[in-house]
Every structure is written in C-alpha cells, then in structure tokens.
Amino acid sequence: MHASTSRRPAALLARLASAPRGRRGFFHSFDLPSALQSRDFFLHSCCLLLGTSHSPRRRLPSHPWCSPARPSKFLEIKFGFYGEVLGAQIADYLLEKSRLVRQSDGERNFHVLYYLLSGADKGLLERLQLGDTLQYHYLRGGLKGVTRDQAIDVDAAAFKVEFEDLVGCMQKIGFSQEDLDNVFVVLAAILHIGNIEFTKSDSDTAVLGDGTALDKVVGLIGASLEDLKFSMVSFTTITRGEAVRTDYTVDQAEDNRDAMAKALYGALFSWIVQKVNDLLKPKGKAYDDALARAGGVTEAGILDIFGFE
Q1: Contact (CB, 8 A) for 276 and 73
Q2: What is d(CA 223, CA 148) in angstroms, rounded to the nearest whole number?
Q3: Which residues share a beta bridge with 235?
Q4: How many Å apart are CA 63 and CA 210, to the nearest integer?
Q5: pLDDT tens, per residue, the chain with 309 residues
Q6: Which one of 5, 87, 157, 203 is CB 3.0 to 4.6 Å from 282, fit for a cystine?
Q7: What is the distance between the alpha carbons of residues 48 and 45, in angstroms, rounded to a whole number?
Q8: pTM value?
Q9: CB contact set of 186 (below 8 Å; sequence gap of 6+)
Q10: How far from 91 is each of 97, 216, 274, 306, CA to CA, in Å?
Q11: Listing from the earlier edge strand, what are the strands of the sheet with 298-304?
Q12: pLDDT value for 166
C-alpha cells in the first residue's frame, strides 16, 4: 500500500463505523478515548508521530505528517458485532533512525524536532535549553561546518501549528502532561547529544571538546557526568576477569555519539507506540460483550510499507 494513503482506509473504516445503525454499523458506549472514533486520530496515529520526515524525492504532501520517509507499520482495528470500533493496535517495523544523525542534500530530519523548536513556548524552550534550529548539528544535515538553510527549509509558522496539533492529538488520545514533558526532554537531549564535539589528543584518541552540550544532556536526563564522559570517549571489555579500557579515535567517538542518539530516539519511538496501544487496546463492557458472542469481534488490518509505490 502506498505509504501516504494508508491513513485513508483507516479513516474510512472509522467513519463507516460511526454511521447510523444498519448495514454500516453503529457505536456503542465503550471505554476508549473519543479520538479513536475520529478521522483525526487515524491521520495522526497512523503516521506515528515521531517517525516521519521530509524527502526531496517527491513534493511534500499537503499534510506534513505524510511524507515518504516514514516507518513501516501494521494497523489492526477491532470491530464489534454491529461494526462499532472496539479498539486498535499498531505494530512498528522499520524506523529510519540513520536520518536522525545525517541527511542528504535537500532532506530534513524528523518533523517533530522542527515542530518542537518552532512551536514550544519560551518557558519550555528555556527549560530544555533549546535555541534556534541552525544551532544543532543534527538539523544541519549531520555534517561538520554546514549551516545551509536549504537543508532545513524551516517554515516556523507552519511548524508551530503542527506542534500544537501534535500536542492536542497526544492529549486527546490520553497522554498526560508528564508524558509529554518526558518526550520533549528526550528530544532535547538528543539534539544536545548531536552537538557534543571531540578533538584529537597527542595519542590520536578522542578527547571531549567544549563540555556545554554534555552538561545540558546531564541536566536533562539526570545521567552521571563522569559516566557519560567515559562512555563518550571509551569503552571497557572484560578479559580473563580483568577490565580493559579502550579509547576511541575521533571518528569512532562521533559514531558512538550518533549511535547513542539513535538508540534514545528508537526507544522513545517504541515507547510511544506501546503507550498508544495501551490507551487504545480493546477493553470495557462492549468488548467483553462482543467476545461472549459468536462472531462478535472482527478485525481489519492495514499494512503500510514505505517505498512500495
């Protein structure tokens, strides 16, 4: 299925399920957020919030969540006997994490990073110690010494609207303010990790440069400063019961830094998918009644794989 259109059958199913009782089914009262019954829920949850970015291969669609560079996923919607939506579940398969740390000419990083910088209020930006988009290595193509505007193509006004839309959608689904704050902290920490720089020592090993970015990461995620410093420039192996430290070269340290950022982003993405599934899984009296009835629960699955066009 074309990646940019999988939201349409999901939206259609939701709208058919909400039609008056009859051949199209109707909604019972059930313990799910009202967002599950709306087209907006499927537009946003199908795109999985953090997993989309802009690619120059095709013109950016009118809805910025629906760009070609996005995760593969499987959406399963469960219906009751009369066609009412009982719940949904999303499985994510592939997330293009490499795009987080490096982008080709004309490509952007994941949308949510620009939305956060353009849409968050001054107080939130100060708490996250965030500034202008051009300050962040991962938003400059992931290349050294690059400050090209064409690689970023920032539309601050549009991104601000999308940020508000994103926050509203997550709140409607059931994310708490604490959940949102944690998401923003991790995203900010990732941007600061990308700004950690290294220099070459006399022995050709990596040495941490200006510690400003590292201090910001520690302040946000509460990690040990000494442990983080050590893990940025070296690793330990155990040989015959003895710990042996190996120092990275500058190139190895940069690869290690980028791997850490990608791991954080991947973990955050998986957590959001799990959170969405926990909030939208079938439950309540309507689901119990449907299970007790022969043929009371049916399923419709939509497989969305990017690049299959």
Answers
A1: no
A2: 33
A3: 246
A4: 39
A5: 444 455 556 555 555 555 554 443 333 433 344 545 543 454 454 444 555 655 544 433 333 333 445 567 788 888 888 888 888 888 877 788 888 998 877 678 888 999 999 999 999 999 999 998 889 999 887 555 554 444 466 778 888 998 998 888 888 878 899 999 999 999 999 999 999 999 999 999 999 998 899 999 999 999 999 999 999 999 999 988 899 999 999 999 999 999 999 999 999 988 988 888 888 888 888 888 888 888 889 888 888 776 544
A6: 87
A7: 5
A8: 0.79
A9: 221, 264, 265, 268
A10: 17, 33, 9, 14
A11: 85-94, 72-79, 298-304
A12: 87
**Structure-block tokens of residue 254:** 């940069």
Using H for helix, E for strand and C for coil, what is the string for the chain? CCCCCCHHHHHHHHHHHCCCCCCCCCCCCCCCCHHHHCHHHHHHHCCCCCCCECCCCCCCCCCCCCCCECCEEEEEEEECCCCCEEEEEEEEEECCCHHHHCCCCCCCCEHHHHHHHHHCCHHHHHHHCCCCHHHCHHHCCCCCCCCCHHHCCCCHHHHHHHHHHHHHHHHHHCCCHHHHHHHHHHHHHHHHHHCCCEEECCCCCEEECCCHHHHHHHHHHCCCHHHHHHHHHEEEEEECCEEEEEECCHHHHHHHHHHHHHHHHHHHHHHHHHHHHHHHCCCCHHHHHHHCCCCCCEEEEEEECCCCC
Q: How many Å apart are CA 296 and CA 292, to the nearest integer?
A: 7
**Which amino acid, residue 167?**
V
- Asked if 169 contacts 122 with a C-beta cutoff of 8 angstroms, the reply is no
What single-letter amino acid sits at 215? D
Residue with tokens 């040495």: 207
**What pLDDT is stored for residue 119 in this prediction?**
94
Instruction: Check: CB of residue 93 under 8 Å from CB of residue 72.
Output: yes
